[in-house]
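User: Some background: our group keeps a shared notebook of sequences we're curious about, and every so often someone picks one and asks for a predicted structure to add to the entry. Today it's my turn. The entry only has the sequence so far, pasted here. Could you supply the structure so I can complete it?
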Amino acid sequence: MWKPRAIAALGLILASASCFTPIPGDPCGKENRARCISATEAVFCEGGTYRTYSCSGPSGCTEQEDTASCDLTRARAGDACPRLLEGQGQCDASQPDKALVCRNSVWTEQVCNTCSAEANGALTCESARVGDPCTAEGREQCMVPAGDRMMVCRSGFWTTKPCSACTPTGAETVACGAPRAGDPCSSGARAQCDTADSDRKLVCNSGKWMAQVCNSCAVRNGSVECGPARAGDACASEGKAQCDPIHLNQMLVCRERLWATMVCNACSVAGSAINCMAARKGDPCLPSQKDRRQCNPDKSDVAEGLLVCRLPVTGGLGVWQPEACNECKECSVKTGLIY
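Assistant: Of course. Here's the predicted structure to add to the notebook entry:
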């Protein structure tokens, strides 16, 4: 329900200047002073200048003693409205499902389910609900309360359809924007890629859009698809492993809800299993593995218990070289994890 202040009477009654008939554009000194210049028009003193307004109601513009009365009850959307009525409104005399509100000195339409003026001067604009009857086929409006759906008049009744970040663009049209993390959503809303971050998707959870990691997020055949995981991304299945799509001599393992890299020479997938070939002394290593360490599969002594990837000063591929390890008796796969 929307309740602006309503125009208190059929005519706007203001003090009148009685000694002359001003012309629109003439200078004036007393703010809001008014004068009829015809049976259907009045001028108002606004900002030091007389401005003309239509008195389109049945009583038109009338003067009595030192007051002028301008009947505004038949105003139409787009007509000018006096500044002193800013924020006030009235029901549209020609359309019961619309109200007119004075905004920025222009009568602006507000779609209502029903519009009524109350005895206390408040204007009540009831928002439409799904299933309510409507008369303007194709008319659109945002749902109240705000969410990710809009209302459309179809076959005489208000229906609803998805519309993220709904925003009115006119009296009968709305625009739908891309949702953001934290925006409200409706139960059952499909996941979608986050337009603010191509490596995230938005999932509707407990009435709000929640961001989740989704590398190279894309929509195919109406469904969100994510690219391969990368080191440091969030993960859900503890211990799950996969080959690193960027570094062929590494694998990714889900540890403490983050994908971590582990040395895995010639990583390959066999069914649901990940196969690795352990690096050996003298094997080549990649620049991305610089200073990476792993257990030496051929040695268990302190002197050469580890292998470390050493790169040449000139660049290019490196070589796995032995290194002393004082804790080699406890060397395990986890020793090689890089977080």
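Suggested note for the entry: Residues 192 and 306 are 46 Å apart (CA to CA). The chain has no helices and 31 strands.
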